[in-house]
Amino acid sequence: MNKHIKVFLAAALLFSHSLVFAADWRTVSSETYTLLWKDLTFTQLKVDPNQKFPESGNILDPAYAKQIVIEYKVGVSAERFRKMTNKALAGAFSAETLAAAAEDIARFCTWYIAVEKGDSYQLTWLPKEGLTLTMNDTDLGTINSSESAALILSVWLGRAAVSEDQRDTMLAAWRKALADNK
User: Fold this and answer.
1) Cα dihedral across residues 39, 166, 158, 61: positive or negative
2) Across residues 65-71, what is the average pLDDT?
3) Residue 182: which pLDDT band, with cuts at 50, 70 and 90?
4) pLDDT digits (tens, 9 = 90+) for 116-155
5) What angle do CA 145, 56, 20 make, to 5 degrees?
6) Nearest to 76 by CA among 36, 107, 118, 43
7) Residue 8 has pLDDT above 50, yes or no
8) In angstroms, what CA-CA distances link 149 with 32, 101, 121?
9) Model pTM score
């Protein structure tokens, strides 16, 4: 078998694995977030219902697949996304903790693109594949480090959350959905 066919088959296998996994997503939280009577985002938290609940009880567990889909109801500049991400991380983690992931965080922030009403970002963590940022169904990049990915995802699901209310609502709905499935 020639080299090009082997590469094609390997890529097809990886691609089909992602599609099969992604087809199993289940929405466990969906909320419209509003500020001063203005809708800002419609956010969904999705997980694969066939995976085990993380023993740690932490959604950021690297063995646990998750996806956040954010549809924007307002425009936001790429620079604003970068500033919010960096400010949230700097306020929640030590400089030493962030230093280990600084290159990945900086690379992730370069992928931000300004959004207009109706655009959506999707953050998908798949164990062994990484954290992929997608905008309107176009992949922008993937971070492979589970440590870096957990820090970045903490901006939505962890202690660096830009909106603690949004994080708490999503995590409560996640826990409830999983408890209801037992």
Assistant:
1) negative
2) 97
3) low
4) 999 999 999 999 999 999 999 999 999 999 999 999 999 9
5) 55
6) 118
7) no
8) 25, 9, 16
9) 0.84
CB 132 within 8 A of CB 142: yes
* CATH fold label, 25-180: Chalcone isomerase (3.50.70)
Cβ neighbours of residue 103 closer than 8 Å, sequence gap 6 or more: none
Q: Is the pLDDT of residue 14 over 80?
A: no
Domain map (residue ranges) of the chain: 25-180
Q: Could you tell me how many residues make up the chain?
A: 182
Q: Which residue has the tokens 């999707």?
A: 122
State both tokens at 113: 């693109």
